């Protein structure tokens, strides 16, 4: 019985792999699972006494690891994609959208990429932090509504690529989760670098706050073979002596960070695609949310030019400039996310990463 | 092209569904995604000012929801399984085991059950809590090693169903994540009850600390059609006036909780299977970890008898009594977890839930 099944499976799988994993219908998953990567460990002084288990003496504590859930489709392409969330977010960024459509996890599985969704150290399911923190329920969602460029609360932007019903808005707000320890660029990039050591060469997708530590991860680990950065935040690394002047905005001041030239050069050796959405003004405005993105986009352009000046391969697409309108800070889950995925897939094909 | 593919797919899928999803080979997933369920919301007094986005005035905060990632296999059985973690844990309990084998997520997908993995409110990816908390990195892992009955640190129990290499131990410790708000039986059972309202009738698997709020969830929501409780912790609910005397142990005192008879009776209307593993003494011992489980198993037996006395259908299996040895507090991920899954599947079949 088992071997008959096996023969049948082998025949069917080769046929099915060709037609499954398209825009509809079932996903054929060769392998899926989860693991922790990286992190550190401390041991309390003293000797553990099993009769006093609540005292830390002699006990250990592991933390600051990344957590990943992965799926490898049948007939997978050579390089998987590691998808890294931004500030206040977790793996959900790439899962079902707030209005219930498929996110980049499913969309890229259907395109035969292995997909690793991570929670960075000190976030979500990677919650054990080596540093204490206090989490307070401070109301902040109108800040995020604006900062994520959905609109100017309570109005939505005209033509914004977001469903505007109450249930979608609720799912969107509930897709946030707090830091369980201080955000630390070194710690989170160490965690994701350790993940690449485990899985081998791959493509890194970053979102927002993940952008900055994403550059650091590629500097630390040459298994990062390409980066697609969705709306990277304020942390861009330049070579020593080449950091541009800070760019003030109505929200904050965007400052480049300096790294040794040798480290910077790692970023010239891989193809990089940067995408920014709509409703980012070119001129200063007195609205913090909009103006912060004006400053970030400006710094991102400086950065593209700096990397390319040293022989790099950075392409920055400001979506409205190529006729794609209405995207928020979450192009991977906006209503036109399949169009965005097409754009990214085209880039990966062009760079022979597919 | 598309319709040809469609025809081919339909033919192949019906064939493949019969032979895929077995103990090896690819999983055929009809649908997968994630969502938040339940929770509450507050609004800070005042009016939101987009020019002062860091002040909470007039802003909202959503929290205390559950988060779920689900997968529905092709050719799914009628009732899905909702898998609920215990203390200090998250969805990982049911995913890849610490030594890299498949957990109950994959094992039950292969058996054609839909699987919902949850992070309960204030844990992991459901991190937004309505109540403030402070998270401290206090070394405690030797406590857990003993409490989870892997051994008496640093020794493993003879014949324990756990791989004993350092990498497995590290993955096991890194599968913990803290509460991001105070643990609250009402809040977490409300979240999971809201999840059942979204998904409809299903089977609930609980682990450890999830056991107590699991009973409450079944009381709150008749869409819970059965419960399989793996090593439920100290919270058992009895009808008013029928709470047994507290059971002291070297770790703590196990106390039943009282609920109105009408609520209690909900637990007599569904089949319930309770499993406990090995290395639980029948007589009091002065080791807190072992003794705490002696007291819990004893209370679980009182509870089984109380529910069955009122016409219920509770079966309690202490695994060594049926010749299954070496199980820890995590039977769903122990080395013999396929054998445990067989036992559970047999129960579901017997109760016509499959």
Distance between the termini of chain A: 38 Å
CATH topology tier name of chain A: Rossmann fold
**Assembly state of the chains shown:** homodimer
Bin the helical content of chain A. 25-40%
Q: What are the segments of chain A in which pLDDT stays under 50 over at least 5 consecutive residues?
A: none
- Fraction of residues in β-strands of chain A: 15-25%
The CATH architecture of chain A can be given as 3-Layer(aba) Sandwich
Major β-sheet strand ordering of chain A:
1-4-6-5-10-11-16-17
What is the overall number of helices of chain A?
9
Shape of chain A from CA axes?
Answer: globular
CATH class of chain A: Alpha Beta
Instruction: Write out the CATH superfamily name of chain A.
Output: Alpha/Beta hydrolase fold, catalytic domain
Strand elements of chain A, count: 17
Largest protein interface? A-B, 91 and 92 residues
- Which structural class matches the secondary elements of chain A? alpha/beta
Mean pLDDT of chain A: 95
How many distinct domains of chain A? 1
H/E topology pattern of chain A: HEEEEEHEEHEEHHEHEEEEEHEHEH
Q: Quick one: biggest sheet of chain A?
A: 8 strands, mixed
InterPro entries (chains A, B): AB_hydrolase_1, AB_hydrolase_fold, Carboxylesterase_BioH
Pfam families (chains A, B): Abhydrolase_6
Protein name (chains A, B): Alpha/beta fold hydrolase
Domain AB hydrolase-1 (chains A, B): 81-297
């Amino acid at each position: 019985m088992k071997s008959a099944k096996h023969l049948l499976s082998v025949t069917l799988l080769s046929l099915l792999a060709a037609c499954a994993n398209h825009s509809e219908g079932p996903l054929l998953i060769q392998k899926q699972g989860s693991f922790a990567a990286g992190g550190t460990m401390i041991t309390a002084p003293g000797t553990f006494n099993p009769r006093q288990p609540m005292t830390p003496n002699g006990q250990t504590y592991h933390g600051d690891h990344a957590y990943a859930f992965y799926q490898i489709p049948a007939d997978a392409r050579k390089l998987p994609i590691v998808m890294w969330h931004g500030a206040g977010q977790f793996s959900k960024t790439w899962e079902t959208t707030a209005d219930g459509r498929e996110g980049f996890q499913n969309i890229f599985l259907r395109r035969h990429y292995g997909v690793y969704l991570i929670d960075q150290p000190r976030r979500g399911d990677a919650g054990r932090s080596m540093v204490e923190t206090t989490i307070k329920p401070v109301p902040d969602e109108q800040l995020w509504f604006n900062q994520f460029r959905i609109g100017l609360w309570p109005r939505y932007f005209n033509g914004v690529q977001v469903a505007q019903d109450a249930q979608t808005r609720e799912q969107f707000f509930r897709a946030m989760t707090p830091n369980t320890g201080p955000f630390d660029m070194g710690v989170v990039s160490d965690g994701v670098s350790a993940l690449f050591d485990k899985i081998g060469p791959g493509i890194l997708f970053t979102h927002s706050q993940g952008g900055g530590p994403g550059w650091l991860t590629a500097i630390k680990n040459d298994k990062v073979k390409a980066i697609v950065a969705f709306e990277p935040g304020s942390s861009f690394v330049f070579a020593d002596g080449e950091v541009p002047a800070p760019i003030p905005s109505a929200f904050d001041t965007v400052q480049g960070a300096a790294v040794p030239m040798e480290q910077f050069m790692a970023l010239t050796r891989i193809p990089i695609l940067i995408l920014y959405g709509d409703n980012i003004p070119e001129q200063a405005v007195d609205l913090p949310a909009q103006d912060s993105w004006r400053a970030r986009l400006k710094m991102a352009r400086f950065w593209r030019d700096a990397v390319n000046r040293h022989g790099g391969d950075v392409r920055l697409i400001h979506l409205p400039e190529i006729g794609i309108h209405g995207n928020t800070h979450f192009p991977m889950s906006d209503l036109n996310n399949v169009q965005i995925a097409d754009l990214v897939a085209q880039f990966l094909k062009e760079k022979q990463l597919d």
